Amino acid sequence: xxxxxxxxxxxxxxxxxxxxxxxxHSTSGSAAWLGRGLSCVCAQRRESDPRPSFDLTPAQExxxxxxxxRIDVAYDSSIPEHREALRALWNAAFxxxxxxxxxxxxxxxxxxxxxxxxxxxxGGGFISLENLLYLARNFPKSFQDLLRKQEGDRSVxxxxxxxxxxxxxxxxxxMLDLEAVKPRTMVGATFLKFLSENESAFDLLxxxxxxxxxxxxxxxxxxxxxxxxxxxxxxxxLERELLxxxxxxxxxxxxxxxxxx
Length: 261
Prior knowledge:
This protein has helices at residues 58-72, 80-93, 118-121, 126-138, 140-148, 161-175, 186-197, 201-219, 227-242; strands spanning 43-44, 53-54. By secondary structure, the protein is mostly helical. Strand 1 and strand 2 form a beta hairpin.
């Protein structure tokens, strides 16, 4: 979606080299989560950078680096595992319809911009395909509801399911500041607490976010041209929920209740 909300485009790929510096950065302090009854936070602020940074435990640092490695993987149609994952996505979406070829006009039924989904995956990388597969396998009813727009009073001009999914992956990477060596926002620091306790936290948060976005879409009675506005509203709501004091795991987020298996 461009900045004016005018049309869907493949979202810009994040930089291939994440700004991590050295491969491993050991820390002596422990991370903190204000208002959560856990350990105390240690926020560091440089004069040249108005945003604080949060120290990580070794476990949190390792989890972040593993997630960053996932983010760095581009979709590559020459890799058999990538092709198999793409075909698995089709089978999850349309189990009764055979996919004739990995490059096919059939993909438009799922909301891709053209007959080759790999051109759209350039925006979010292979992890955006993994996110969609996680949604399909762990919350199949929500996946089908979102794909087929089965809930609510829908617009004549709806958002395309698959491209919206890639945009959500990209938005979460930005919101959680996953390009940085350390989180520089409380939202990012809070997420890393969840990630250190659940290696699938990013995938689960993706599922929650997709359902929340659709919920906001319906509440705002949005149409195709409003997608960018809906995404901004979704991000604000998600940030608020992540910082609620009684949220100690992703399943505690109010929007988690929107998901159904």
